[in-house]
Amino acid sequence: MEGVIDSIFRxxxxxxxxxxxxxxxxxxxxxxxxxxDKVFLRExxxxxxxxxxxYGVPVFVQLLGGxxxxxxxxxxxxxxxxxxxxxVNFGCPAKTVNRNDGGATLLxxxxxxxxxxxxxxHVVPRNIPVTAKIRLGFDTPxxxxxxxxxxxxxxxxxxxxxxxxxxxxxxxPAFWEWIPKIKERTxxxxxxxxxxxxxxxxxxCYEITGCDExxxxxxxxxxxxxxxxxxxxxxxxxxENIGPLLPIFFDSSxxxxxxxxxxxxxxxxxxxxxxxxxxxxELFEKIKAVQNPSEFxxxxxxxxxxxxxxxxxxxxx
Length: 317
Ligand SMILES: Cc1cc2nc3c(=O)[nH]c(=O)nc-3n(C[C@H](O)[C@H](O)[C@H](O)COP(=O)(O)O)c2cc1C
What we know:
Blueprint: H1 7-16, E1 22-28, H2 37-43, E2 59-64, H3 68-80, E3 86-90, H4 95-99, H5 110-123, E4 130-135, H6 143-152, E5 158-162, H7 178-185, E6 189-193, H8 199-209, E7 214-215, H9 218-222, H10 226-231, H11 239-242, H12 245-256, H13 259-274, H14 278-287, H15 293-301
């Protein structure tokens, strides 16, 4: 997730376990240049580790853009650097991205989606999977059928569907019920995405979609132990699980860039955690206004008072 789940976050999440696969933040391929090697390696250092996190979880490289040849050349470059898979983003709703012919805007032009995917599939060696991610449509959910068919027409076999339109942005609910309709019309292997915040959500998503693969974004940021909970319903998440991850995240981010970067990223994460966890909320309220990174770092280690009632995640909001 762009601006959120970077290589440090991937390392922390995959250290917990329960994740089968990660995808990088998107690399935006503009009309001017192929993504340079150094950019791929900076944002996806896992490429130097057989495209896996330190904990052995494969990381796909995600590309976004509207120019078939430049997308293909960038994909080939990522493959040559060792990417174990290429994912193509047709879901990003950001204005700058859409204005520059990338992300969800391409959902208006399914033929172009096919062309982009075909040219990527054509150059990337067959043993490296190429996958795609869509929203249902740009402004109408019915478009998901045509968009999924456009993906299948390029010889792609796996598609992640974020079950909203671009116009829906991130407004709940996610409309999982479109996935069975896509499955009726294509042979695609579908990964269901959108609004899975708990193991109960995942169960409902499974019942509605029949999918056996799921992508979880914000739910994993708010509760990094969600994958454990899904795999083991008796696993209960306490602040003692989550709290110690914060200083680790801060220190790794500071090492990678700077203390101020680390502070901003850790505040961003804690703010997401605070939406689902009472102890996290208390800590966030206490330290959100702290300006000095060293003071902020120290406060991360002062565990908030954890009462028995805090020892659970809040219900999804
Ligand atoms: C801040 C932010 C950044 C995101 N960046 C990406 C991205 O780089 N690539 C991508 O495929 N999806 C991206 N997404 C979308 C999520 O991957 C996901 O499809 C969406 O949030 C719905 O799933 P969720 O309810 O599990 O979060 C982003 C979402 C957010 C909120």
